């Protein structure tokens, strides 16, 4: 019987076919590892901030830690260094609430307090301070002021101009044209506000922004010029629905 001859098989070398013992990695795989490393590092940094915020709360430093976290998130969303928080997106700013307000006069109608000056910081656009007799109170008479319990760092004012509870109320009441702001630095600041004659959009009910940079415990608005009411022959009533203070 003829014996079948077989070729002896050699044992395969260890390692993947085509690579052998070459330890060098392709460039693509190196970048893939680098990407994973950066993703893990970023996630770790964010986790550290979040965990640190909660762990440091008992130590009484949660405010500063939260501020840092908020700033990081804000910068991530707005890479441009020129972008600042706005009334639509106050970002890492905190609202600074007054303890009290004062004015020389306010309009009395069905209720004694219906248009009182404290309405300007109650968080409601539908309420307002309305001054009666604008221009008849003498020098610095057309004034409203806000007092804070201690000095606050104010960086942004959001002013809802006029009586903005509805379109007709807005058109029936005067709005501020020019205001002198006192209490923020040694020199008073003149600031113009807009009037919205086209009330088909919602611009009239949205706050107008005033960028600030000061530390104070009292801010004063001296109203030096107004826009008269649009639908009434009324030149001596002017309103402010809301002012919010941010810093």
TrEMBL record:
Annotated region Disordered: the residues are 1-27
**What Pfam family does this protein match (any one)?**
NADase_transloc
Q: Where in the numbering of this chain does the NAD glycohydrolase translocation F5/8 type C domain appear?
A: 94-245
Protein name in UniProt: NAD glycohydrolase translocation F5/8 type C domain-containing protein
Here the segments flagged for biased composition (Polar residues) are 1-13
Q: Organism source for this protein? A: Allobranchiibius huperziae
Q: Any keyword Ribonucleoprotein? A: no
NCBIfam families per UniProt: NADase_discoid
At the top level, the lineage of the source is Bacteria
Q: Which UniProt keywords apply?
A: Membrane, Transmembrane, Transmembrane helix
Organism lineage reads as: Bacteria, Bacillati, Actinomycetota, Actinomycetes, Micrococcales
The residues that cross the membrane are: 37-56
Q: Does the keyword Membrane apply?
A: yes
């Amino acid at each position: 019987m003829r014996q079948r001859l077989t070729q002896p098989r050699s044992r395969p070398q260890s390692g993947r076919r085509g690579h052998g013992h070459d330890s060098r990695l392709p460039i693509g795989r190196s970048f893939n590892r680098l990407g994973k490393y950066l993703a893990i590092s970023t996630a770790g940094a964010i986790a550290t901030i979040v965990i640190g915020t909660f762990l440091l709360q008992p130590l009484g430093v949660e405010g500063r830690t939260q501020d840092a976290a908020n700033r990081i998130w804000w910068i991530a969303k707005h890479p441009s260094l020129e972008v600042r928080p706005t009334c639509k997106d106050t970002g890492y700013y905190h609202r600074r609430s007054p303890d009290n307000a004062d004015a020389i006069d306010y309009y009395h109608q069905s209720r004694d307090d219906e248009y009182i000056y404290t309405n300007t910081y109650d968080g409601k656009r539908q309420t307002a301070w309305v001054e009666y007799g604008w221009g008849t109170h003498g020098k610095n008479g057309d004034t409203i002021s806000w007092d804070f319990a201690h000095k606050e760092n104010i960086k942004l004012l959001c002013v809802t101009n006029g009586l903005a509870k509805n379109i007709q109320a807005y058109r029936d009441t005067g709005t501020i044209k020019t205001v002198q702001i006192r209490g923020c630095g040694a020199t008073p600041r003149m600031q113009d506000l807009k009037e919205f004659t086209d009330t088909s959009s919602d611009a009239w009910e949205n706050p107008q922004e005033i960028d600030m940079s000061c530390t104070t415990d009292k801010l004063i608005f001296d109203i030096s010029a107004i826009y008269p009411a649009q639908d009434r022959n009324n030149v001596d009533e002017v309103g402010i629905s809301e002012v919010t203070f941010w810093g």
